[in-house]
Amino acid sequence: MADLPLLSIDVSIARESFLLECRLDIHGKCTAIFGPSGAGKSTLLDLINGNLSPDRGIIKLGKEILVDTSTQAFKAPYQRQIGWVPQDALLFPHLNVIDNLLFGHRRRRDSSHSSPSPHQVIGVLGLDRLLARWPRELSGGEKQRVALGRALLSNSKLLLLDEPLASLDAKKRSEILDLLDEIKHEFNIPIVHVTHSLAEVMRLADQLVLIDQGKIKAAGSIESLMGKADTPMLSDRRDAGSLLKLNDLTLVEGRPAVGLLEGQSLFLPLQAGEWRLPARALPLRVYVPAHEVILALEPPNGLSVRNKLACRIERLIPQTSQTMLVELAIGQQRLLASVTTAASEELGLRADLPVYALIKSLSLDVPAGRNLLSDSEHL
Amino acid sequence: MIPTDSTVEWQAIITSLSVAARSLAFTLPLAILLGWVLARKRFAGLAILDALVHAPLVLPPVVVGYALLLTLGVQSPIGQWLDQVLGVRLVFTAEGAALAAGIVALPIMVRSIRLSLENIDPRLERAAASLGADPWDRFRSITLPLTLPGVLSAAILGFAISLGEFGAVITFAANVPGETQTLALAIYSALQIPGGEALALRLAMISLFIAMLALLAAEWLGRRAQRWHGKAST
Fold this sequence. Notes:
- The structure holds two protein chains of two kinds.
- Chain A has eight helices and 21 strands.
- Chain A has helices spanning 41-49, 97-105, 118-125, 140-152, 170-186, 198-204, 222-227, 341-347, and strands at 7-14, 19-26, 30-34, 56-61, 64-68, 73-74, 82-85, 158-162, 191-195, 207-212, 215-221, 241-246, 248-252, 255-261, 264-267, 284-289, 293-296, 307-318, 323-330, 333-340, 354-359.
- Chain A starts with 6 loop residues before the first strand and ends in a 20-residue tail after the last strand.
- Chain B is mainly α.
- Chain B contains ten helices and no strands.
- In chain B, α1 packs parallel to α5, α3 runs parallel beside α8 and α9 packs antiparallel against α10 (197-232).
- The chains are: A alpha+beta, B mainly alpha.
- Chains A and B meet through β7 of A and α6, α7 and α10 of B.
C-alpha cells in the first residue's frame, strides 16, 4: 500500500465533555475508528476534514500538511480533497441525483491521482435508474448510495464515512456494506470509517483504531487486535471473537465449503439461498465468536463438530469473574476461546499447552458479497 | 388649481414604481448579506448590528427620514463629501426617496431572508465544502437557491413597503411632483387642496390596484417557489 496516502495525526482539542488527545498513523486501505457514542470519533473526523481546528498539533495527508498549529497553517475543508459521507447523506435537496453526483466532479481541483469516472461509479453503485430523481423521492439506502457516489466522484484522496449505515434497517445496511466492500476493492481511495458497530468493522476494516473518552486505546491491523485476549474494548465484550483469514477455498456449486487455515482445513457453513462471494474472495475472512469455541486436550472422536484445529495456548486472560479468554496460536493467526474458570482449572490450561479447538461450522460467520463467481472448484 | 388631466396620476405612478424599483435594487443585495451574516456568523458586535438593522421597524418613519437628513443632508460632512467629490445629492431627489423607503423596508426583508436561511441545515454547506466548493461557490450554488422562497417574499414585501412609504420619504426627499412625489405623497397633497377629494380617491384606487397586483404576483411567485422547493426538499 505504499502508493496510498498516509494520514498522520498528532492533535489535541478540548471539547465540552472530554479532551481528545490523538497520536495516530493511518495507512490501511480501510481503517475503522470504533468506539461508543461520545468517545470522540466524530470530533476526530471533523479535525480531519477541517470542520474543526485542533487546539494543538498537526495533521498530514501524505506529505501535505492539512493543519499545523505551530506554523498557523490551515487548509480549508474545500481545499483538502477529502470526501465525506455523513449518517444522513446530506444530499442537496434542490438538485436531482445526477447533479448531486456531479457536484464535486465539476469542481475537482487536480487530476494528478486517478479517480473513478461517473460511468464507473454509477455502474458500481447501481444508480442508473435514479439519475433524474429528486432526493426526497429516494429511500434511505438510495440516498446513501448517491452520497457515496458523490464523494467518490469528487476526486477525493481520502473518503471519510461517518456512520453511514446507522440510520438504515438491517437489509439496507447489508446492501450498503456489500457496496462499501466493492468500493474498497474497485477504487483506489483509502477509507476511514467511523462506526460503533463491530459487525461493520469486521466486514470492512483492515486497520482498526479503538477510541474511548477522547483517547486512542489501541490501533493496528484488525486480525491482530481481534485475536488478542487483552485488547481493550474488544476482549471484555460478550461477543468477543477473532477473525481468521483463509487463503485457499474449495467451492461446491460456487459456494465455499472448505477453507485452508495455516495448513489445516476449516469447514464452512453451507450457505442457503443465493449466496455470493465477496468482491474479492481471498483472503476470505471468517469471524469466530469466542464462546463458540470448545477446547479439548486430545483430538475427540464421535462428535458432530467438523472443525478440530490443532493449536497452542498463547496465554490466558481473565475475562469476567467466572470466565477466561484463551488466546490460541494457529501458525501466525490467533483464535480466541472463552471458557469458564472452573473448566480451565480442571483441564489445567496454561501457556504453551497444545490443545484442539472445536468449532461447529454453523457457528462461523462468513460475509456474503455481490459478485457471483463462476463454478470453479478452487480459487 | 386642481389638475384635470391625468398627468398627476401618471407622474405619481411612474415616480412610485421608479422609487420602489430603485429601493429594491440596493436593499435586496444588502438584505441578503445582512440576513446571511445574522443567521450564520457569530461575532462580538452581532447584537448591535441586529439592533441597528431592526431599528427602522420600531422607529417612526419620520425619525428615519430625519436621521438621514442629519447624516446625508447637504449640511452634514458625508452629504458635503458626496455632493462635492462624487456630485451625488440625495436630499429632495428620487434617489434620496428610494434610500429612505429602502431603509424602512430593510428590517422586514432581512427578517424574511434570515428565517429562510435558518431553516437550511448548515451541514449542507459543509458537505459542499468537502466536495470542493469555496465559500462564494457554496453561497451561490447551495445557500442562495435554498433561500429562494425567502428572498422572493422579501423582494415583494420590500417593493410593496417602498411603494407606500410616506414619513421617511417626505422628511428626507420632500414632496416634489415628478421627482419624489409618490402615490402616497400625491394623495396627501390632493387632500391639502380644497376640492381635491376626487383626485385623492382616484390616486387611492390606483394605489389599491397596484398593491393588489403586487400581492397577487407575490402569491403566484410564492406558490411557484414553494412548489419548486417542495419538489426539491427532502
